């Protein structure tokens, strides 16, 4: 079987960071504020991408998604612990839900992110880098879209009228 070309680590860093930087620029241009989650993601991408480049070790880039997913899940659960469903803060202008709806949606996404963290750890530790990259592109993205779509009944059930 011929060996497939490996993605240059610098190109991988640019591809990882590009969408996050675009999101930050657009958000700042529109709201004059930087959203915290993309900022945290950008920092993690730079740190772990930099470690991958400096140490020539792909492990750092493979662990990065685990850390991001676990961090998102932990932050969402932490918000619930303090009775602050953080998805309500982030998506309030997009969805209008009752307090119970925001709590349930936040808990579901927290569990989903924590499950993705575990799944990423299992995959990167047990398959080749090429297979892991394929999983990241053709596994995680569709899983996330599917999970999001499966939340439609909850969004409908707990819909609230927007505040005037």
Short description:
By secondary structure, the protein is mainly alpha-helical. It has helices at 9-31, 36-55, 59-81, 86-91, 99-126, 129-149, 152-157.
Describe the structure.
With 164 residues, the chain is mostly helical. The chain has helices at 9-31, 36-55, 59-81, 86-91, 99-126, 129-149, 152-157. 77% of the residues lie in helices and 0% in strands. The longest helix has 28 residues, at 99-126. The chain is globular, with a radius of gyration of 18 Å.
Radius of gyration: 18 Å
Q: Give the termini distance in whole angstroms.
A: 63 Å
- Could you state the order of secondary-structure elements as H and E? HHHHHHH
> Share of helix among residues?
over 70%
Structural class: mainly alpha
β-sheet strand percentage = under 5%
Largest sheet, in brief, is: none
Please report the total strand number as a whole number. Answer: 0
Let me know the average pLDDT: 85
Put simply, the count of helices is 7
> What characteristic shape results from the CA principal axes?
globular
Residue ranges: pLDDT <50 for 5 or more in a row?
none
Topology:
Elements: H1 9-31, H2 36-55, H3 59-81, H4 86-91, H5 99-126, H6 129-149, H7 152-157
Helix pairs in contact: 1-2, 2-3, 3-5, 5-6
Keywords:
0% strand; mainly alpha; 164 residues; 7 helices
């Amino acid at each position: 079987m011929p060996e497939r070309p490996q993605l240059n680590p610098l190109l991988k860093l640019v591809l990882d960071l590009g969408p996050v930087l675009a999101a930050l620029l657009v958000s700042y241009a529109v709201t004059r504020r930087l959203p915290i989650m993309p900022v945290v993601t950008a920092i993690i991408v730079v740190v772990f991408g930099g470690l991958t480049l400096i140490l020539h070790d792909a492990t750092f880039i493979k662990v990065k998604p685990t850390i991001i997913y676990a961090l998102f899940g932990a932050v969402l659960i932490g918000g619930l612990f303090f009775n602050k469903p953080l998805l309500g803060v982030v998506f309030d202008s997009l969805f209008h839900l009752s307090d119970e709806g925001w709590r349930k949606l936040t808990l579901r996404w927290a569990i989903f992110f924590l499950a993705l963290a575990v799944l990423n750890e299992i995959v990167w530790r047990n398959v080749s880098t090429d297979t892991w990259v394929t999983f990241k592109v053709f596994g995680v993205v569709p899983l996330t879209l599917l999970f999001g779509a499966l939340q439609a009944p909850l969004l409908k059930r707990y819909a609230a009228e927007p505040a005037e």
